[in-house]
Design goal:
Elements (H helix, E strand, L loop, with lengths): L20 H8 L3 E9 L3 H12 L4 E5 L5 H5 L2 H18 L15 H16 L5 H6 L3 E4 L1 E6 L2 E5 L5 E11 L3 E3 L7 H4 L16 E5 L3 H12 L3 E6 L10 H14 L2 E4 L2 E6 L3 E6 L2 E6 L3 E3 L3 E3 L6 H4 L3 E2 L2 E2 L12 E3 L10 H16 L12 E3 L4 E6 L2 H8 L4 E7 L4 H6 L4 E7 L6 E9 L2 H13 L4 H4 L11 H17 L17
Parallel strand pairs: 1-2, 1-6, 2-3, 6-18, 8-9, 8-14, 9-10
Antiparallel strand pairs: 4-5, 5-6, 7-15, 11-12, 12-13, 16-17, 19-20, 20-23, 21-22, 22-23
Helix pairs in contact: 2-11, 4-5, 4-8
Length: 512
């Protein structure tokens, strides 16, 4: 290998000739592998990057310490959405009279629901996420703990204690994250659940307290309540889902309240007493919530500890590996993507960032990971977000330069037919050179499906009026995007109506 001292701004991946003592031993006895790419972690980002790399003809080793598929398959997106699907059916059965059908209050076998959740995971794990599938692609999958032992060297320790050293021109860290557990006295002694353990239950507690009010907590709270579990949400912030558009959060909160989900905001959980009883303080007053189970959903912590970052000079902080806009760490040969990089903690963000990292390393130019990352909270209705909230835009551009467009689904025929509700909020920055959408927010049954169109509109700096010219299928919820755009275009036409051609009774209005 040739040494390279490429600066951080270079597009050349640095290959370092320094060999650790263990690496020298491995080289002398033929125990060291040289490949193009080592990926640490075969979750969503790692799987996409590995497949992309082998399709480009690169040699790839992937180290995975637990299960292929990562958090998304085993503890996050897949099981939570399977649970939400069962909860939605239960809710429809209970309220079937809204659709002219008989209702059903039959008792719900929670154990059967949880078994279905695990069956959905196993179905995916034995298909697209099967380790054999990746090995068949030509990916060298090594099961074990990976540690950086040089700028271009990874040592993988298997469960039997054996080690393997791999040298690569590029290292991509996709090690993910885990639930953050707050330091609350009595919590450990009382026992608690997280997204990593709640789906493994055989006996589901009849009462749950959710500590946290972000997407994970709110999705689980509504789903569990619809399945007959008594749920209380304790959120430290003054609102649930604080990163989303406040007026749509308020509409969702109204829906959750109407269903009977108990939500307390502004609560600082101070301890857990035997029982267990969760004790919190709100407005200076101590309150107590007896429960059968505590679900901690208070954020995520990047999996950094076992990676050996400091020894090779990779900077990190509480959010994760420090990366630039190209997903490179402070060591040019080492990139990071997904939760471990601490930017946007979503499956789709991880896959996007991982591919952009490889594009930056292997192709001419710079592969910046600068696209807008939308997200959705999969409550019913769903709450989707792309770009800025109205408040963020006002802070960035000034209130006088921001227009907020709103459209209620009360004006949507499909919503009436489906018995659904919601709204769309678009945030527009008005400039001398033309207006552009900078934020899009949807509360609707299919908000997660709809937000992609508006994300593209933000990326392409389209105006709200331009959305009115995109013809949508009727009747769909998406029609409201066209309606909102049409309303904005109509307002523009009204301002310029003095340009209209004069027409009168009996006067020709067409032809020449």
């Amino acid at each position: 290998m040739l040494a390279s001292n490429a600066p951080v701004g270079s597009n050349t991946v640095a290959v370092n000739t320094r060999i650790t003592p263990g690496g020298l031993w491995a080289v002398l006895f033929g125990m060291r592998d040289d490949v193009d790419l080592v990926i640490v972690g075969l979750g969503s980002g790692g799987m996409t990057a590995a497949q992309f790399a082998v399709e480009l003809g690169r040699t790839v080793v992937v180290a995975e310490r637990h299960r292929v598929g990562g958090d998304c398959l085993w503890t996050g997106c897949v099981p939570s959405k399977a649970l939400i699907a069962s909860a939605r059916v239960a809710h429809h059965l209970r309220h079937a009279d809204r659709f002219g059908l008989p209702t059903s209050d039959a008792p719900i076998d929670l154990s059967a629901v949880w078994r279905r959740v695990r069956a959905v995971r196993e179905e995916i794990a034995s298909g697209d996420d099967d380790p054999a599938r990746f090995r068949a692609m030509g990916i060298d999958l090594a099961l074990g703990e990976a540690r950086l032992t040089g700028p271009n060297e990874v040592t993988i320790t298997a469960t039997d204690g054996s080690t393997r050293q791999v040298c690569a021109g590029l290292i991509l860290l996709c090690a993910g994250s885990r639930p953050t557990v707050p330091d609350v006295p009595g919590l450990v002694e009382a026992g608690y659940l997280t997204s990593e353990t709640i789906f493994e239950l055989d006996d589901v507690p009849p009462r749950l307290v959710m500590v946290g009010g972000g997407p994970i907590a709110i999705e689980l709270a509504q789903a569990c309540h619809r399945l007959g579990i008594d749920v209380t949400v304790l959120q430290r912030a003054p609102t649930i889902l604080p990163r989303d558009e406040p007026e749509l959060v308020a509409l969702l909160r109204h829906q959750l309240d109407a269903e009977g989900v108990v939500i307390h905001t502004g609560v600082e959980v101070v301890r857990v007493d035997p029982g267990p009883v969760v004790v919190g303080v709100a407005d200076g007053v101590e309150q107590r919530w007896p429960t059968d189970g505590i679900v901690v959903a208070a954020g995520r912590t990047p999996n950094l500890e076992a990676l050996g970052l400091e020894a090779v000079g990779v900077d990190a902080n509480a959010q994760g590996v420090v990366v630039d806009e190209r997903m490179r760490s402070t060591v040019p040969s080492i990139y990071a993507a997904g939760d471990v990089a601490g930017r946007q903690l979503f499956t789709h963000a991880a896959t996007y960032q991982a591919v952009r990292a490889l594009r930056d390393a292997w192709f001419p130019g710079k592969g910046k990971a600068d696209s807008i990352i939308p997200w959705a909270t999969f409550t019913d209705p769903e709450l989707a977000h792309a770009g800025m909230t109205a408040a963020e835009a006002a802070d960035e551009f000034g209130e006088d330069a921001v227009v907020v467009h709103r459209w209620s689904l009360e004006h949507n025929d499909r919503a009436h037919a489906d018995g659904s509700t919601g709204a769309i909020v678009l945030v527009e920055h008005q400039r001398r050179i033309g207006s552009r959408i900078v934020g899009a927010h949807i509360l609707a049954e299919t908000a997660g499906e709809l937000i992609g169109e508006l994300t593209l509109a933000i990326e392409q700096e389209r105006s709200v009026s331009q959305l009115g010219s995109v013809v949508h299928v009727y009747p769909t919820i998406a029609t409201s995007i066209q309606q909102l755009g049409g309303a904005a275009a109509t307002q523009t036409a009204i301002r310029y109506r003095w340009l209209m051609k004069a027409t009168g009774a009996g006067r020709r209005t067409g032809g020449t």
